[in-house]
Amino acid sequence: WFELSLAAEFRTLGEKALAALRSGEVDDERSEMLLNEAFGHALWHMQGNGAEMESAFKRALALAQSLDSAELQFRSVWGLWLARNALGAYDDSIALARRFGSIVPGSRKRRTNLTYLRMMALGLHYRGNQSRSLTYGRQVLDHPVVANHPARHSGFQFDQRVAALTVLARTLWVSGRPKEALAHAQAACDEGMRIGHSLSLCYALASGAVPVALWTGHQQDAERFNTLLLRYATDYSLRI
């Protein structure tokens, strides 16, 4: 569902499946973990941070830990990281990113490490350490796995290259490099359009292209990006 950017449809089905698990019709901890984790992300894309979203991620993480599976802990920690960023708790965000990174060596998925690098890049950007943010963000773009194994195929929903370009766009503007910032923002949108993934495109537009265009005084670009964002976010119920 996230590969097809159908968060709203997943939320409806996820609610039914979780209700069946809670009623005792089904007893399957792994399925409950995966459903809670994905349900938390559906809530995030549709309505933003909230108690229901955080509760879903916490339940998913508790189940992942009880199953003693590092691989199942990744996306739950990532979900809690999203929640901390939304609340402006940036020290917590960086701590969760490092926790995520500590789990990574236990897996054999190199692309999971790219998610860690991107988490650190965004957390450090929000925390105010732009030079270190740039270092982490550029590592994602420089990695040869990026072009062939986008994160949306491994449970992290956003394409790594699109997300990294978006973070770099913001960081470059804050660092006093507006032309590079706008170029990275445009590149993120172009990549999102090229791969045809609406979740990644909306992230690039909302978090990078629209604000960077406004910050750099490019009103026409901002209006163009905003029109595109409204169209895709409306079509796919991506309200946040």
Write up this protein.
- The structure is a single chain.
- The protein is mainly α and 240 residues long.
- The two termini are 17 Å apart.
- The radius of gyration is 18 Å and the shape is globular.
- It has 11 helices and no strands.
- The relative contact order is 0.09.
* Poorly predicted parts: 146-152
Q: Globular, elongated, flat, extended or rod-shaped: what is the shape?
A: globular
Enumerate how many helices there are, as a single number.
11
N→C terminal distance: 17 Å
SSE succession: HHHHHHHHHHH
Oligomer: single chain
Helical residues, percent: over 70%
Main β-sheet: number of strands, strand sense, barrel status?
none
Binned strand content: under 5%
Helix/strand/pairing category: mainly alpha
**Overall residue-averaged pLDDT value:** 86
Could you give the count of β-strands?
Answer: 0
Using the CA coordinates, give the radius of gyration.
Answer: 18 Å
Core attributes:
single chain, 75% helix, globular
List the helices and strands and how they pair.
Blueprint: H1 7-22, H2 29-47, H3 51-66, H4 70-86, H5 90-103, H6 110-127, H7 130-142, H8 160-174, H9 178-195, H10 198-215, H11 219-235
Helix pairs in contact: 1-2, 2-3, 2-4, 3-4, 4-5, 4-6, 5-6, 6-7, 6-8, 7-8, 8-9, 8-10, 9-10, 10-11
Write a compact overview of the structure shown.
This protein is an all-alpha fold. 75% of the residues lie in helices and 0% in strands.
